[in-house]
Amino acid sequence: VANSLAAVEAGASQVHATINGLGERAGNASLEEVVMALHIIYNLKTNINTRLLYSTSRLVSSLTGISVQANKAIVGENACAHESGIHTRGVTEKPLTFEPIDPELVGRTRKLVAGKLAGTRGIKAELEEIGIHPTEDQLREIVQRVKALGDKGKMVTDADLLAITSAVMGEVIKEEKIVDLCDLAVVTGIKVIPTASVRLVMDGKEYIAAETGVGPVDAVLKAIQKLTSSLAKIRLNEYRLEAITGGSNAVAEVIIKVEDEDGHIVSARAAREDIVMASVEAMINGINKCLIKHRKLVNK
């Protein structure tokens, strides 16, 4: 990348680069890094639509089977994520303090992560996103418990944060939900097309839908999207599955990103021993976040 930029400074009019820096041996110059450096540092424009860089990176990764390392610039999972208290406070007040570029320029959104390094601002923003407003004392205690959980090596999921908040506030916290799961049935087998039947409550009314897919997870997520399409066009932007523990009964963590019709992307996660249920929980969490955010913007 540095050589490519030096070549442009010396008068080169063309740069050889590849998405995610893929290539033989040690790879090639990363297209997304070169393009954004030219845009931000040199104020040189290219014909590349930078807002499609992240989605293109994910597409290439899925087609090649080569994962993008989490710490990769621009498109890495951690590139727009902030966990440290100092970072989350700084980035919420003045984004350029810790972000060289606006995440939206490359089709991404900022992510505040709850964990052992979490700060008050980050946790507060996470809770406000789902309509929960603790007092300062309650928030301080919530942050301490999140840190304690993170110190044990556990990834703090949305459900964990909600459970901690409920315990601290001394009441059953009812997360603001526009969509909620009532019932779910999945059928699959060797010579059976995976089929899912889902019953959801949306704005207080029950709806049922069934869909088929290439697997049980695909079928159930399609059924959920089919039902919620009447509220808003929300599509699955990214799906990732990670095993937190080992063995056949491992706890699986599902991390998803969903995108609404305005291009806003939100992330959600859930952890369960049942991969299908973890996927459903994460998907519904993501859809609720999208819908709540959209309605708040409309009502402003």
Brief summary of the model shown:
It is built from nine helices and eight strands. A three-stranded antiparallel sheet has the order 3-4-5. A three-stranded antiparallel sheet has the order 6-7-8, with helices on one face.
Describe the structure.
With 300 residues, the chain is of the alpha+beta class. It has three domains: 2-64, no CATH class; 81-169, no CATH class; 179-299, 2-Layer Sandwich (Double Stranded RNA Binding Domain), CATH 3.30.160.270. Helix content is 38%, strand content 20%. The chain starts with a helix and ends with a helix. The model has no long low-confidence stretch (mean pLDDT 83).
Question: Could you name the key traits of this structure?
Answer:
300 residues, 20% strand, alpha+beta, 9 helices, 3-stranded antiparallel beta sheet, single chain, Double Stranded RNA Binding Domain, 3 domains
Task: Give the topology, please.
Blueprint: H1 2-9, H2 31-40, H3 53-64, E1 81-82, H4 85-93, E2 111-112, H5 120-129, H6 136-151, H7 158-169, E3 179-189, E4 192-202, E5 205-212, H8 216-228, E6 235-243, E7 252-259, E8 265-272, H9 275-299
Parallel strand pairs: 1-2
Antiparallel strand pairs: 3-4, 4-5, 6-7, 7-8
Helix pairs in contact: 6-7, 8-9
